[in-house]
Each structure stands twice: as C-alpha cells, then as structure tokens.
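Lab notes, practical 5.
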Amino acid sequence: MLVEIGNIPRPYGWGSRTAIAELLGRAASGHPEAELWLGAHAGSPARIIRPSEVGGHETLDAWIAADPAATLGRYASGERLPFLLKVLAAAAPLSLQAHPTPDQALAGFAREDAQGVPLDAPHRNYKDASAKPELIYALSDRFEALCGFRTLESFREIVLVLRDAGGGVGGGGAGGRGLAAAESRGGAGASADGGARAAFDGLLAQADVLAVSAGGAPDGLEAAVPGGPARGVAEDSGAGATAGRAGGLDGAGADRGPAAGVDADARRRTETALRDLVEWLSMGGPDVDRIVAATVAAARTILAGRDSAGRDSAGRDTAGRDSAGRDTAGRDTAGRDSADGATVGRDSAGGDLRFGAELATVMALADAYPGDPGILISLMLNRVTLARGEALYLPAGNIHAYLEGLGVELMAASDNVLRGGLTPKHVDVPELLSVLDFAPVDPPYLRPEHPSPGVEVFTPDVPDFRLMRVTGDATIPVTGPGIVLCVAGSFTLGATPIARGQSFYATPDEAALVIAGGGELFVATTGG
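Output from the prediction step:
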C-alpha cells in the first residue's frame, strides 16, 4: 500500500529560507525552513494527505500505533518506524554534537525518567530510548561539515600555522595588531605582549601529548596550558595514529578500530589526553577565552593575507581548489588525496597557505558564536566539503556539526542529541564526554553500491536504515516499511504517480517498488 505523506519544515533559526522550497517546488514560507521530517517520530510526525485511505488517521505515527502489523510488518513488535528521513537545509552552522549508542540511550532515558525530568524540559538530554546514527547525502553543489577527530599531527600543524601567523604576537607585526584589535573589540585577554604565543605554545604542548602515538612529541614545546589538563607527555610507544574509515569505502561498513600495529595502551593514552583537552576547552574560563580570541585573531590575519590571491571564503581559488591546490574531495592536481605528498603551498610573501577551509570556518563560527570554545574545538575535527552526490555516515559517538548546505538526511528514529557548543541550547559537557569516541578517524565517507543502472544504495553498518537514489526505471526490493521522496522529475510507483515534491509511505506488503520514469527519487527503508 502506498500512502501519500507530507509535513511542514521545522523553523530552526539556522535553516535556509529558500532551499527546501526551491528543491521541492513549493512556495517559501518567509521563515527559516531547516528540516522537513518524513517519518513517525513524535517530534514532528508526517501528515497523511488523505486520511480517509487509512481509517481517518491524520498522522503517520497515529496510523502505525493503530495497526503496527500492516504498517511495519516484521518490525511490528517494536511498534515504531525504525528510521526517520529528513531534508536538511543549513544556512548557518549547527551545534557541535554527538549521539549515543543504543545502550547509552536506553540507560540515559531511564535515568532522566527516574529523576523526573520532563520530556520537554530544555535541559533534558535523552528525548527517547534510541540511538541516532545518521547519514547525510549532499544535494547542494557543496555541503560543508565537521566530523570526527582529525589526525593528531594535522591538528598540531594547524596550531603551528596559527602561532606562526601571530608571530607578530610578541612584536608589532600584523598578527600582533590583529590580536590587539581583538582585545579592543572585547576579546578575552588576547594581547600583543606575547600572551597569545604562550597560549599557542601551551596548546601545542597538549597536542604533543596526543602526537605521542604518532612518533613522539617534538622538542622545545614544554609549556603547559595555564589551568589546563595536568597530564605530561607520555613515553613514546612508537605506534601509529588511529585512522579508521566509516561506511562503504571498502563496502564493509564502519571500521572504527585501531590501524594495523597500533599499541592499545598508546591508543588509550592518546584518547584520554584528547578527552582531557576537549573537556578543559568545553568548560571555558579565562585561559580558554584567551586561546579562542588568539585563534580568531590569527585566523583573521592569515585570511586577510590570502584575499589578494583571489580565494573564496573557504580558501579555494576560482577553480575550486584550496590553497594547497586541492579540490573539494581533498585531491591535488595530480589526483592525490591529502595523505599523499607533503608539499606546502606558500604565498608570494612566504606565508603558509594550508588549512584555508579550517580557518574560514573559525571566522564563520566566531561571527555566529563569539567566544565559544567550539571555535577552537572545530580545528580538532575533520573539515569536509561534500560535492553533490557524496555522503557521510556518522555513527554513535562521532562528534560533528553541519555548517552549510542542502542534503537528504537519514537516521535511526531518535532525537537524542548531546551538544558540545556552538549553540544557545543546553550543553551537558560531562554527558557529551561520556558518549564521544575520541579515536582520530578519516572523514567517514559512505560510498554507494550500484546494483543496477540508475540506482545507488548507501548501506551503513546498522540495521535501522539504508538509502537508495533512483534516476530512472528500476525495481527496488524492500524488506520492511519505506518512504519515497521525489526531488526532481516524475515517476510512477507501480500505478501510483509521484512527482517533484511528493512523498509516499510504502507498507511492507509492497515487497518491491516498481519504479518507472526519470528524475531523482530517494527511497528510505530498513537495512535488512
């Protein structure tokens, strides 16, 4: 059975005012339209367009509750639709966040219930008892995101670039003037008297703790962050940094374990040190304020020096390449990715041209959330630009933030979000730390399978959901309930027409969707 559904976009302040309406061929509301929810989650259940077809039920969750056997099939015992499909349109950065594992969600939900925390309380962390792994498929030409902790040496290199740019911090160079200007605008103590350089040196000392597993800390950076984590540099184990990849890079799902040869104790020390640094930054205070202000001022100085090279706000030139000559997928002109080669781009004055996107992100976040520690934490994360048609898979524990762009998002049916900054909403640092996975990982791209012409299948390593993209005639087997969304062109689902902007719920008795037509259509269904 195919039942047409729809919904009204959620008006979160970070949402685009036009992107969802333009995608689906609708009139814009004039207000932010951040997320269109197509599912049965109680937070915004899909509306049934013709309730008379389903016994008068007006929302998808009500129909499922009344007849779980017909609407969910073999998933009826759970009495809930396992997944939630969204169209997401970000015009401004979302919060730094992560989601719990199934066990963490179950325990957290029960704990807050026992404490009597109302479900709609702003300070409640767990809105339900479910995990929330998710994937995002880019519909815009570029979808900007932060996701997962970057390699340890890479973070250290960014801090060195910032420190060197502020080298003037001790003397009256451009960096010093930038920091003094930041202080005059209300920056928290970043000055041109050498304090900023000391702050960066202290941060480097902490980065060196993390770099131990990648070969040991360099000499000459023994300063400690004032008031920061009190851990010293551990002995070098000679192990390499963790570099797992998620999703379908090899079609095997998420590999979040250690790289070959990584010593378990070295990995534990690395993750513990990273946790301590994130905790210290997240708790804030004068020393954190000083480092954040210094970071913003140094980024401003660097980017101002690059503007004359004709680069955009993400540090890319008119050919779409960043200051190291890399495209949006991180490949250089020879097709090598960011792990190949070590050439450092420099401008005509010898300035370091790396990390343009990261520094542009610092400035964007500083504009949106002045003084927020998340500005600095963003530099610890992988900065990813998805091209249209690329996808990321974000498992439990992966810290991430969507920055800008339009995409199709598919997730387990949960609204459990642990926030870590870049938001006016409730932030619970201890609870966030308890769910975060601190192992450095590569950007978790999810590669599709191509079972037939015009069909792409994105299958993460969880049973809750998978996403299919269809551009022409196809027969799609479904093992459970499904949701179909058309974003371009027109098709038929058997004898049922579907055009741009329409969506349908497919009950499990459909077994297979026989699709004919052309355009772009997404099918969300269960994973197995």
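Observations recorded by the TA: The radius of gyration is 24 Å. The chain has twelve helices and 19 strands.
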